[in-house]
């Protein structure tokens, strides 16, 4: 599980997230949504411990600020919005980085169990055909799937993903969300930042909505993405056919 209590994040002297509190149980899949600049990525970075914050974050019942970097990595895996890879590694070696907290080694030097975990993660990300290929030679969508596999290869019980669908075609967006739902069903806690509200409502039993740095809605999709929230936060409404459209075109 993971929780935030009165979480506040400041950048350049300005609060980009203020007094955010929520608690997620084991096996829960939650979408974190909101318009551009709402503070979603800042909250995720604070949970991952890569940006300073005030308030309390707890990961698997442990205060995050008391954990070492390795202890945090064993509890939490984070997929950032920007994912540079400095070296032209093989795809499977990038995925193997997800095992680093427990077994720091390239794929061909890993033990049998760790290699099996890497291959299983590649299968979940529909990326096994990329084994043996140089990461820098892959398309943006293929790289995104390798990064997803890296996250899934981690044994951490908490997964954080920041806009993982951005570079993916619609088929792989659906596959990714199904894979995250399966991880939650297996007991992992998953928070995923999404811009596609329909994907969030379809796959995530819980939706957290942010606006201007504050958490303004938290609940099941029908409640968190009510007509009032859609209009006030996103400036959209549902048409008679159920499609989202601008509230004031």
If helices are DSSP runs of H or I spanning 4 or more residues, what is the number of helices? 9
Indicate the overall shape. globular
Regarding quaternary structure, what we see is single chain
Question: Can you tell me the CATH topology of the domain at 2-83 and 156-246?
Answer: Rossmann fold
What is the CATH-assigned architecture of the domain at 2-83 and 156-246? 3-Layer(aba) Sandwich
CATH top level label of the domain at 2-83 and 156-246: Alpha Beta
Largest sheet descriptor? 6 strands, mixed
> How many angstroms separate the termini?
41 Å
Strand content: 25-35%
Uncertain spans, ≥5 residues at pLDDT below 50?
Answer: none
Computed CA radius of gyration, to the nearest angstrom: 18 Å
- Give the topology string: H per helix, E per strand: EEEHEEHEHHHEHEHEEHHEE
Number of DSSP E strands: 12
Q: Describe the strand arrangement of the main beta sheet, using strand numbers.
A: 6-7-8-3-9-10
Structural class: alpha/beta
Q: What share of the residues lie within helices?
A: 25-40%
Average pLDDT confidence is 93
CATH homologous group name of the domain at 2-83 and 156-246: P-loop containing nucleotide triphosphate hydrolases
Protein name: Iron compound ABC transporter ATP-binding protein
Organism: Hyphomonas hirschiana VP5
Domain ABC transporter: 2-237
Function: Part of the ABC transporter complex HmuTUV involved in hemin import. Responsible for energy coupling to the transport system.
What topology emerges from the helices and strands here?
Blueprint: E1 2-11, E2 14-24, E3 29-33, H1 40-48, E4 54-59, E5 62-63, H2 69-75, E6 76-79, H3 91-96, H4 112-124, H5 140-153, E7 158-162, H6 170-185, E8 189-193, H7 197-203, E9 206-211, E10 214-219, H8 221-224, H9 227-234, E11 236-238, E12 244-246
Parallel strand pairs: 3-8, 3-9, 6-7, 7-8
Antiparallel strand pairs: 1-2, 1-4, 4-5, 9-10, 11-12
């Amino acid at each position: 599980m993971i929780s935030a209590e009165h979480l506040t994040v400041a950048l350049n002297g300005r609060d980009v997230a203020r007094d955010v509190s929520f608690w997620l149980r084991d096996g829960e899949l939650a979408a974190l949504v909101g318009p551009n600049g709402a503070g979603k990525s800042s909250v995720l970075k604070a949970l991952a411990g890569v940006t300073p914050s005030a308030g309390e974050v707890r990961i698997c019942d442990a205060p995050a600020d008391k954990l070492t970097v390795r202890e945090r990595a064993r509890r939490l895996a984070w997929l950032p919005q920007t994912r540079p890879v400095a070296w032209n590694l093989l795809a499977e070696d990038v995925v193997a980085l997800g095992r680093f907290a427990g077994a720091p080694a390239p794929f061909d030097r890993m033990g049998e169990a760790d290699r099996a975990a890497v291959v299983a993660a590649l299968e979940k990300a529909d990326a096994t055909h990329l084994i043996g290929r140089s990461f820098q030679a892959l398309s943006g969508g293929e790289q995104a799937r390798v990064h997803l596999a890296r996250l899934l290869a981690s044994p951490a019980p908490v997964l954080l993903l920041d806009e993982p669908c951005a570079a993916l075609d619609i088929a792989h967006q659906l596959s990714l969300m199904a894979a995250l739902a399966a991880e939650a069903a297996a007991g992992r806690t998953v928070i995923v930042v999404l811009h596609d509200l329909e994907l969030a409502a379809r796959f995530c039993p819980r939706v957290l909505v942010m606006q201007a740095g504050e958490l303004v809605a938290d609940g099941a999709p029908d409640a968190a993405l009510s007509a009032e929230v859609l209009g006030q936060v996103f400036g959209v409404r549902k048409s008679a056919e159920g499609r989202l459209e601008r509230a004031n075109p």
